[in-house]
Amino acid sequence: MPTRNSKIDDLLIAFGKIQATLDGLREQARQHHGELMRRMDDLDKAAHQRMDGIEDRVEVLEHDNKRNIRQAGMGAIGGALVTGLIELLKYVK
Question: What does the pLDDT average to over 33-55?
Answer without folding.
Answer: 94
